[in-house]
Amino acid sequence: MKRIIATILCALAITSACAKQVIQEQETATEISGPAETYKAVLRDESGFFADGRGMTNKISLSDLYYDADEPWEIGQFAVVDLDGNGAFEVVVEEILGGERLVLYCYEGNVYGAFFAFRAMMNLKTDGTFAYSGGAAYNGIGQLYALSEGSAESKVLAESDTLSEEDENGALLPIYYVDGREATQDEFSAVWDDFTAKEDAPWYEFTEENIERWIA
Fold this sequence. Notes:
alpha+beta; six-stranded mixed β-sheet; five-stranded antiparallel β-sheet; elongated
């Protein structure tokens, strides 16, 4: 009899544990599917988003965007990356003609969009870091860290620039920064080498099939 009772108690414990696991899995699926469906609606032009720097009063849709006066935005590809390292993914879409990138992120149930010129967000990595460049001597590595209502702030991980002073040959003297402090060229190069060795973020052709497959 004791053996039968023990067996029943064990079975009840297993059933309870399995039920708890199912509930947890369902809750996790709900948490993931919320932002996913929101992003999908924006990408399918079924819903709008608040555009950082382009008016926050009313939502706009992707079909409202123009490369110039005569050329509407045409998205070629997109990436799904956790840009700020908080465990939730964001969506980056790339316009074909100028390479401008739009970062779509969720904040308190709304989708916001932050625009980056091509040279302001290059070589995107799976950990959310990216390179930027303003010319031959001005280059850096950055990462978004504060995605909130109408604000997508980025931090500089490493940067090279030039001073107004010149060397004996008339060339502007370089200056380097790592984590907000002045650094040597070797320190900057080491950070840059680590960045280039990271895995590139995968980009997917902007199709309905890929939207359904990769945003989930």
